[in-house]
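Lecture 7 notes: from sequence to structure.
We start with the chain below.
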Amino acid sequence: MKLEGKVALVTGAGSGIGRAIAKLFVEEGAKVVGTDLAPAGLETLAQEIKELGYSSLTTITGNVSAREDAEKMVDAALNAYGTLDIVVNNAGIMDEFVPLGDLDDTMWQQVLNVNLNGPMYISRKALQTMLPKEKGVFVNIASVGGLFGGRAGVSYTVSKHGVIGLTRSVAYHYAKKGIRCNAICPGGVSTNISVRQPNPLGYERLQTTLASAVRAAQPEELARVALFLASDDSSFVNGEILVADGGWTAA
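Predicted structure tokens for the same chain:
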């Protein structure tokens, strides 16, 4: 097992990519703290883990965009398992493909708070445990929207560019301290992340980027990428922005 004896914190673990990562990490020997804003998703995850025959999952509800909640998530790992080795910053929300001219402050702040402030809060807190032992791994779920301008609205695009900047900064500053930080940039993924009422202009412009998209990934495919980056298989991979989009952006 690739994560035997490790303790991992996975945000947004109640559904989609986060759920798939939490399950795979447990199967690979990790003790996992799964967090989510929605308790129902965490209850389903806990039941699935129990049915698989494992007892190495702790769950906590909270909002990563609230600093106190984010820090309590890290504390939950320390309280349950005594340490923290791996953080997967996965929780995120979409932005209805809203371009700048139609953007209101509420959406901007909400998306930036969840997608960028959340990973910052959790990573900053987790470093307090990782730095003294000079070992730790961060896996940030960014997006191809963090590499280009036409895969989402302005809020999501900026937030995921920010996640990539956060990833590279942490990787560079703490490389000599035994800390690794990498990001995954998925393309389309079959999850329940919702776009309720897409902005007409943003959605129209998105269509021009879709010609080379082969299919949507399954969450389990992204979980295997996260496992590679979290495990010692990637021991010399640091500051990498790994695109996993089935070739969508290769054209």
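Points to note: The chain has a mean pLDDT of 95. The chain is about 45% helix and 15% strand.
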